[in-house]
Amino acid sequence: MSDSLVIIPTYNEKENIEKIIRKVFSLAVPFDILIVDDGSPDGTGNIVNALQKDFAGRLYLEERSGKLGLGTAYIHGFKWALGRHYDYIFEMDADFSHNPEDLIRLREACLLGADMAVGSRYIKGVNVVNWPMSRVLMSYFASVYVRFITGIGVQDATAGFVCFSRKVLEKIPLDQIKFVGYAFQIEMKFKAILYKFNVVEVPIIFTDRTEGVSKMSTRIFREAFFGVIQLKTESWFKKYN
Question: How many structural domains is the chain composed of?
């Protein structure tokens, strides 16, 4: 029985989903996987359901009725994990932009004392492969902007490759998390720091997807830009104990 659960939200990831599942299960450290699928019309959920026969007791599927957003998918997964025995809960993309091998390094950081370990693209320069320069600059300066507004020291505030120790997710009021896109990732890090948890960054190399379609949109970017100001403003009026 694993103490670690990898949550992978999906929407139309049929090209990647079986490969990412098999790769995670091939690692030297045992991980369970929860797929949170938002009713993918391409049959992603059906592929996962078929694979459950091969990985009984290790692969789980939660199917939702529509495209409800990344943040709500993770909140759904966090609550599912907290209802079970897991000590370490991970966020990871389905498209291999996050190297599954790095799950072990993120877990190790938490075993060594971190409460939240962030797979960081920017802690040692800029470690991004296959992104156009415009997107690299947008992502990098988004993190600079977040640090300026919030005052937190996380170099890669929008990172979506994360290991949480259980106590972090038990402490943060998950029903009060507001955002669904990149702002969700910022909000979780910001709240963890406000609650005085030890957030560390682990350097990774981020490789853009080679199959499937990116879910990035102008709306998601806008939410992050204005959401950061809202997060900081609201933090002035609330106590975090």
Answer: 1
Supply the pTM of this predicted model.
Answer: 0.90
Q: What is the pLDDT of residue 235?
A: 85
**Band (69; pLDDT cuts 50, 70, 90):** confident
Residue 135 has pLDDT above 80, yes or no: no
* Residue 241 belongs to a domain: no
- Whether 240 is in a domain gets the answer no
Q: Residue 13's domain spans which residues?
A: 4-235
Segment among 43-47, 60-64, 146-150 with least mean pLDDT: 146-150
Domain assignment present for 26: yes
In a domain, 126, yes or no: yes
3-state DSSP of the chain: CCCEEEEEEECCCCCCHHHHHHHHHCCCCCCEEEEEECCCCCCHHHHHHHHCCCCCCCEEEEECCCCCCHHHHHHHHHHHHHCCCCCEEEECCCCCCCCCCHHHHHHHHHHCCCCEEEEECCCCCCCEECCCHHHHHHHHHHHHHHHHHHCCCCCCCCCCCEEEEHHHHHHCCHHHCCCCCHHHHHHHHHHHHHCCCCEEEEECCEECCCCCCCCCCHHHHHHHHHHHHHHHHHHCCCCCC
